[in-house]
Amino acid sequence: MTVSLKALVEVRAGHPFRGSVPATDDGNARVIQMRDVSAEGTVAWAQLPRTDLPPGKATDWLHDGDVLFAARGGRNYAVCLAGVPAHTVCSQYFFVLRCKSPGLLPEYLAWTINRAPCQRYLASNAEGTDQLSIRRGVLEDMPIALPSLERQRHLVALAAAARQERRCLEALIQNREQQLDALAHELLSTPNFPA
Fold this sequence. Notes:
- By secondary structure, the chain is α+β, with helices and mostly antiparallel strands.
- It has helices spanning 106-113, 116-125, 136-140, 149-189, and strands at 2-4, 9-13, 29-32, 50-51, 67-70, 78-80, 88-90, 94-99, 143-145.
- It is globular, with a radius of gyration of 21 Å.
């Protein structure tokens, strides 16, 4: 079954900062900015800057299971949040997707947005000359395949296994490069090395 994203999630913009985020050491909130999130789905929680948000104004804090969508730039990706510290918001360059359908796993939503069919849809609907961006209406109208919860869980587990395989392969490649560098260093430091 295929449905539009707006039928499955509530879409809202990130916190409306005017310009750059004013950082303060003892601020009352943490802020996720573009530089804190990777397309691989990680958030640098320990590096999040703090800022002061005005008291008395209702703030929609981020929660585990929220999906951040990077709406600006050449790569529009989604990240499912887990382990969100208390009193955390995101900058205005993200849309926050909060599942309102019990038949949708947020991890699956992030996975499917990052796959080729949704990425093609986003690329064909991006707007802007200096910097590409995705409008909220375009995002809300994006078609999403909605398989059973069991199949969603299977796909999420498969994606997690693929990420683990990538990390292992990258570690092996890095290890091999270090071995080759050590051999080259040994060759250069050996006196009277025979030709």
